[in-house]
Amino acid sequence: MATIQNIADRLGISKGTVSKALNGASDISETLRKTVLDTAVEMGYSRIRRSRDEAKKFCILTKNIEYREPHQFGYDFVIGFRQMAEPLGYAVEVVPVDQKFQKSIPYDVFMLQQDYIGAFVLGFSLDDPWMKDFETSHTPTVLYDNYISKNPFISSIGIDNSEGMALAVAHLKELGHKKIGYLSSSFGSHIMQVRHKAFFHAMKQNGLRADPSCAGTSFYVSHCIEKHLPRLLDLGMTAIICSHDLIANAAIVQCQQLGVHVPEDISIVGFDDLPISAYTSPPLTTVRQERLELGKCGFYALDSILNKVYIGTMYLHAQLIVRNSTGRPAG
Amino acid sequence: MATIQNIADRLGISKGTVSKALNGASDISETLRKTVLDTAVEMGYSRIRRSRDEAKKFCILTKNIEYREPHQFGYDFVIGFRQMAEPLGYAVEVVPVDQKFQKSIPYDVFMLQQDYIGAFVLGFSLDDPWMKDFETSHTPTVLYDNYISKNPFISSIGIDNSEGMALAVAHLKELGHKKIGYLSSSFGSHIMQVRHKAFFHAMKQNGLRADPSCAGTSFYVSHCIEKHLPRLLDLGMTAIICSHDLIANAAIVQCQQLGVHVPEDISIVGFDDLPISAYTSPPLTTVRQERLELGKCGFYALDSILNKVYIGTMYLHAQLIVRNSTGRPAG
Q: Which region among A165-174, B32-41, B64-73, B171-180 has the lowest average model confidence (pLDDT)?
C-alpha cells in the first residue's frame, strides 16, 4: 500500500505538502489538494496506515433509508453500529448520499477527504454510481444487502435469506399448503434477486412445484399487486410469499377489497418484519431482519477488515415470526 | 434461558446444591452432579449468564487435525484464534476429540462440565456424533467448514468456496482452457459437497460445458487418482481442479508417471494452499485458505454470539495463488 512518501515522489512535491493536502490545510490550493487526493486514491493510500491514536471516524452512508425515529427502518441499524463502535472510541457519523452526490466525487476521494476510516453502507441499489467504485476501492467498507466479489476491502452483511425463505416455505408446507406463489419488487436491488432465487430453491428443497408463472415481479408495489395478485389467485395459490413487508401489506389490503379472506382463503408471508408489520390486519407472518444485530454485525465486519481479516460475507441466522396472516388452507 | 433457581425448583433441591454441582464441588455425589448437569442442559442453562468476572474459557475442538507444528494444517487456526482471544482475557484450550469420546458424553454436558463458554470446532465430518448435538445445543459454537441451519447458537465460518471456485475456473478460462475436469474426495464432509456444487456452478457461469462425467469422486486419494485421472485425460481435459491440495499433489505425481507434463499437457489447480503446496514440482496453483485469518474469524463469530449477534455464516474472501502448475493448453 502506498505511503505519503510514495505520493510525494510521484508528484515531485515534499512529504509535508502531501500531508498538508491530505489533512485539508488551508495554505494548500484547491487544485493541488485535489491532485494529491486523486493520486493518493489511485496509489491505494489509505488512512488505515495511520497511527491508532489519531481520530478514528466511521460513517454510515444511507440512501433512501430513514433512521432518525425508532419506527424507521434504519434506526436500529444506526443504534446497533454505534453501540459497538463508540465504547471502543470510534466516532460515527450518518451521511445520507444520493446518486447526484455520488456522481460528483469518487468514493475513495470522499472517504479520504472526510477522514473516514471505513463505511457501513445502507440502502444502495445496483445502479448507484459508488457500487462501481466499491469494486476497486481500498477503503474498508461493509455493504448491507449488497455484494461485491473479489475485493478484500469490501464485506457484505445481512440475514441469511436462503435460510429465511426455507423457514417461510417449510412453515407453509407444514400448514398443508402446496400451491405457493411469490410476489416481488423488480431486480434493481441485489437482495430482490437473492430472495427470488431462494424462493424457487426452497420450493424445490421442500418437494413443491414452482414454475416461473408462480412468481410475479414489478417495479411498483401497486402494479405488482394489481397485475399479479389476481393472477396468482386464479392459479389456485393458497399462500403467497412476498419479497418484503410493504408488498405483503398491500396484498392483504387488496385481498380484503377482493373479498378474499386472509388467512382463511389465502395465507400471506412477508420479509423484513418492519415495525408496522405487527399491526397490519391480520398481523403479518414474516421473516425478521434483526436490525439491531445487523448494525452490530456491520461493525464486526468493519473491525475485522481493519484487523486484516478479510470477511467476504457475514449473514445472520434468519428467524420466522409467525403471526395471524398464515393458517391452514381451506378444504 | 434457565437460571440456577429454575434448575433447583425442577429437581426440588437448594440453589446452593445446584451451584455446587455445576462447579464440581467435592461434597456432591457423582450421581447428583450428573442429574444436575443433565437437567441444566435440558433446560437450556448456559454459562453465558454468569458474571463477566469469572473465568472465561474457550476450547478449540479438533478431530483429525494436527496443530502443534507450524507446517501442520491446524497450527495457524489455533494461533489466530488465540491472538484475538487472549488479549481480551479469555483462556483457550485445544481439545482433540474422537468419535468414541463424542459418543461417551453429550456435547452440552461436556462443555458445561469443563466450564467452556464456547467452542471453535475444526475437522468434524458429517458422521461425527456431536454434529447431531449441535442442532439443538445452547452453547455458543463456531464450526469451521461445517454448517448447521436454524440454531442461533451455532455459526459457520470458512472461506467463500464459491468465490474460490469461480476464481479457479476464470483463471483457467483466461489461459484458454475449455475442457476442465474435477477430482474430489467423497462427500462425507460438508465442504466437499459445497465445492463439488461450486465447480459446476462456476463452469456454467463462465459459459463452459460440464456434465457429471467431468467429475470423479472417491473416498481414497489413491483410488481417485487411479480411477478418474486417466478417464479425465481420455476425455480430452486440458485442466483439472482438485477438491484439495493432497489430491492435486497426487495428480501431479501420477501425471509425471504417465508421461503427461504439468502444465504443458495438463493444468492442475488445488484447494487449501497447504504449507507443502509451494514446494510441489511444479509448485501448485491453488485456492488459498488464509488459516490465520480463519482462526481470527472463529473468534469473531464466537464473540458475536456471546454479544447476542447470531451470525449464521461468515466467509472470508477467497484468494487464488497462481504458481506453475497452470499454463496455456497445448496447441
A: B32-41
What distance in Å separates the CA atoms of residue A197 and residue A184, rounded to the nearest whole number? 11
Cell 497450527 sits on residue: B75
Cβ atoms of B247 and B270 within 8 Å: the answer is: yes
Element (H, E) at A233: helix A221-234
Which of A152, A304, A316 lies nearest to residue B312, judging by beta carbons? Answer: A316
**Measured between alpha carbons, how far apart are the two ends of chain A, in Å?**
67
Return d(Cα B142, Cα B139) in angstroms, integer. 10
Which is it for the CA torsion B237, B243, B247, B253, positive or negative? Answer: positive
**pLDDT-derived band of residue B40, with 50, 70 and 90 as boundaries?**
confident
The B-side interface with A (CB below 8 A) comprises 149-152, 159-160, 163, 166-167, 290, 293, 296-297, 300, 304, 307-319
| Nearest alpha carbon to residue A142 among A297, A308, A316, A318 | A297
Using an 8 Å CB-CB cutoff, list chain A residues near B300: 300, 304, 309, 311
Whole-number Å distance between alpha carbons of A177 and B149: 23
Distance in Å, alpha carbon of A26 to nearest chain B alpha carbon? 40
Of A297, A312, A319, the CB nearest to B311: A297
A317:B300 CB<8 A: no
Taking CB atoms and an 8 Å cutoff, what residues of chain B touch A160? 312-313
Q: Which three cell numbers stand for residue A187?
A: 431486480
Q: What is the DSSP letter of B259?
A: T
By the 8 A CB rule, do B50 and B1 touch? no
Residues of chain A with pLDDT under 50: 48-53
The predicted pLDDT at position A55 comes to 57
Nearest CA in chain B to A148: B317
For the cut 50, the answer to whether the pLDDT of residue B47 exceeds it is yes
Cα A93 to Cα A56: distance, rounded to the nearest angstrom: 11
Q: Please answer whether residues B68 and B94 qualify as being in contact, where contact means their C-beta atoms are separated by less than 8 angstroms.
A: no
The model carries a pTM of 0.80
Give the pLDDT confidence of B232-283 residue by residue, as tens digits: 999 999 999 999 999 999 999 999 999 999 999 999 999 999 988 999 999 9
Listed in sequence order, the DSSP H helices in chain B are 4-11, 15-22, 30-42, 75-85, 99-104, 107-113, 129-134, 161-175, 190-205, 221-234, 245-258, 291-306
Look at A41 and B197; give whichever has higher pLDDT: B197
Query: Residue A313 is nearest to which of B151, B293, B315, comparing CB atoms?
Result: B315
How do residues B61-81 score in pLDDT, each as one tens digit? 999 999 988 888 899 999 999
Q: Are B140 and B153 in contact (CB under 8 A)?
A: yes
Q: What is the ipTM of this complex?
A: 0.74
Tell me how far apart the alpha carbons of residues B311 and B300 are, in angstroms, rounded to a whole number. 10
Cα–Cα dist A177/B320, whole Å: 45
Closest chain A residue to B162, measured at CA: A149
Which residues from chain B sit within 8 angstroms of residue A84, using beta carbons?
307
CB contact under 8 A, A312 and B149: no
